[in-house]
Amino acid sequence: MNNSATARANILARLKAAPRTAVPERPEWQPPVYDADERVNRFASVIEASHAEVYHTSADAWPALLAEVMQRHGLDSLMYAPGTVDGQQVATAWGTLEQAPALVPYDRPVEELKDTLVNGVAAGLTATRAAIAETGSLVLWPTAEEPRLMSLLPPVHVAVVRAETVVDTLAVLMASQHWAQQMPTNVVLVSGPSKTADIEQTLAYGVHGPKELIVLIVH
Amino acid sequence: MSGDFTQRAPGALNDPTLRRNFRRAMDGLMTKRAAQFQDTAAWNALRARGAAVKARVVSKLPELLEQLEANCTANGITVHWAESTAEANAIVLEILQAAGAKKVIKGKSMVSEEMELNHYLGDHGIKAVESDLGEYIIQLAGEAPSHIVMPCIHKNKSEIAALFAEHIDGLGYTEDVDTLTAAARKALRNEFATADAGISGVNFAVAETGTLVLVENEGNGRLSTTLPPLHIALMGIEKLAETLEDIPPLLSLLPRSATGQAITTYVNMISSPRKPGEKDGPEQVHLVLLDSGRSRVYADEQLRDTLRCIRCGACMNHCPVYSRVGGHTYKFVYPGPIGKILTPQLEGLDCAGDQPHASTLCNACVEVCPVKIPIADLLVRLRGESVHSSDSPAVKGAGSRHNWREALVWRGWKFMYSHPLAYAAGAKVLSRLGNAIPDSAPMIREWTSVRNRPKFAGKTLHELVREEGYDHE
After folding, report:
1. Which residues are paired to A186 by β-bridges?
2. Which residues of chain A neighbour B200 with C-beta distances below 8 Å?
3. Does B248 contact A10 at a Cβ distance shorter than 8 Å?
4. Residue A161 near residue A138, CB atoms below 8 Å
5. Residues B159 and B276 reside in one and the same domain
6. B345, B372, B402: which is the final residue of a domain?
7. Which of residues 317-346 of B touch A (CB under 8 A)?
8. Which domain holds residue A111?
9. pLDDT tens digits for chain B (473 residues)?
10. Nearest partner of B21 among B130, B150, B110, judged by Cα
């Protein structure tokens, strides 16, 4: 776009013609640090305070627990990612259960799955790359196998968190995993179900995203 | 007199519903913010870091913009530059028309308010639907936001209930917040599913990685930037972060300062359009960089501190003027203390020159600003600029409020206070005759319209002291 090129040249010329000032140093700042044995509990209690439902479980037991929790909530279907470890585990485990919610795979582009995603599925299951103790946040790192919308459009989002992936803060996580060198298409931090306080500062859940967030912490 | 804040203020002050709505909201927001920053040492360290991070951005702005552009482009994001809001609107329209888009769903963006984008798109046959609940409410009401973070803060439950009953089919009058929210969800779900494009703002654009960071609670930001096949992000040229490592301290400041939340429900980090093999996300991502006066402000070393702002709104939440008159009294897009320094700079002192005067200089905004913008100093500077012609090319409309009578009085005052004999003579005259000046005299009239007029003592202080036997030598 030609106009944009002219605008670019003019804007940068004006900015560069302005007097230069010294670049200040970043003063010391330490994000909070928690005891290793407190970390997971803190994560759980903070995200619970943000209206998430938290369950502690084990590597083998979580699919059955999820089926039970979903039945209790009256949720009859789960969208899952058939290409992920967690997706395969839930599919295998639920295959042996007498009663389990229906499994709906996110196995093709959104264009072919829009109706199901927008209106046709009760919950969506995702893994998490990490979780943050300070703010009670899940770190979602969507991939081709586990797309973005499965944690967003269904009314309930179920996230599996491995206890050993809980870190103190976002700052520590970004540095230790070298995010700056490998940012994917999309990363999202999730700290509770969708909410709003736009009407008289009264909290209401599920305005656009999930109304409920279920977190399974796998120890 | 330029602008008409002064004319609008009494209307707001005499509206008990508006006063009550703002009072309740501001008290709540101040209490929640204070609870987040109880540890003073931690607040000071975090704030010093945040201020330095944004001051670095300002000091390296042209280079960081070039770096951001290069990294976004490498990531597959198309970058556009607009000098004016008209150019930005034309760019957005061109992108939408090229894609054959007829309907866009919008996440919250103050830059789009600057552009009056919805109006512009509507004139060109494209429907823009606001999806942030607060923005949706004021779009139904045909109003502008009254707060930069909580756009419909001026409305109470019953006003919103009446609005929804009128506009949403099948929903009667209800003040139940969950029912109202569910109704909006249902109405907007369909709009999301059928929108041809999503438009969002940007909280921080990371130059180092070409990443757009967007914070929100509702999920409408995620939806607007994920579900439609095309995403257009709008940002002012100052809303940068230098490195990804700078994001955590800024994220630790923004939601806590804004709404007293430790973090927003969602923090989106968008670095590219959908890649081959990925099953969702927009095929195209565009970033529009809007100048609209910002590069002019940048020419001035003091005024450019304004460009550090991260738009948390804490200054307005704590402002004794804003909390009484509300956002609409300011008339411009950015109300409250940040608006009082930003608007006259972007729009010019000739059309918004009364804004820097709508302040008591109480410093509450300065104390809570998470990036330490010296708002009070800038207010004073702009007050000066509005009456003096300026050497600084940064100040549009400088001197536009110059008034020869006022200038003459101040010159006389200055002379008196720097010449002891003139002072003694002048004080003597005023102590004898000052009370005889009528209330209707120019300048006295404005001053006494909202204040009791002080009475001159019969004798000057110097005279009284001398009578007591003291000699000033």
Report:
1. B270
2. none
3. no
4. yes
5. yes
6. B402
7. none
8. 34-193+213-218
9. 445 898 899 999 999 999 999 999 999 999 999 999 999 999 999 999 999 999 999 999 999 999 999 999 999 999 999 999 999 999 999 999 999 999 999 999 999 999 999 999 999 999 999 999 999 999 999 999 999 999 999 999 999 999 999 999 889 999 999 999 999 999 999 999 999 999 999 999 999 999 999 999 999 999 999 999 999 999 999 999 999 999 999 999 999 999 999 999 999 999 999 999 999 999 999 999 999 999 999 999 999 999 999 999 999 999 999 999 999 999 999 999 999 999 999 999 998 989 999 999 999 999 999 999 999 999 999 999 998 887 788 888 988 888 888 889 899 999 999 999 999 999 999 899 989 988 888 888 888 888 888 899 988 888 888 898 887 55
10. B150
Q: Do A7 and B271 touch (CB under 8 A)?
A: no
| Long-range contacts, B64-68 (Cβ 8 Å, 24+) | B64/B207, B64/B240, B64/B242, B65/A11, B65/A12, B65/A15, B65/B207, B65/B237, B65/B240, B65/B289, B66/A12, B67/B207, B67/B208, B68/B205, B68/B206, B68/B207, B68/B210, B68/B240
Q: Name residue B378's amino acid.
A: L
Beta carbons of B137 and A50 less than 8 Å apart: no
User: Nearest-CA distance from A199 to chain B in Å?
Assistant: 6
DSSP state, B328? G
State the residue range of the domain holding B373: 1-36+311-402
**What is the amino acid identity at position B449?**
S
Is residue B49, in this structure, part of any structural domain at all? no
Q: Look at chain A and report how many structural domains it folds into.
A: 1
Q: Are residues B363 and B447 in the same domain?
A: no
Name the token pair of B15.
């509206």
Contact B265 A26 (CB under 8 A): no
The verdict on B56 touching A (C-beta cutoff 8 Å) is yes
Calculate the CA B448 to chain-centre distance.
31
Residues of A in contact with B156 (CB under 8 A): 200
Say if B259 is an interface residue toward chain A (CB within 8 Å).
Answer: yes
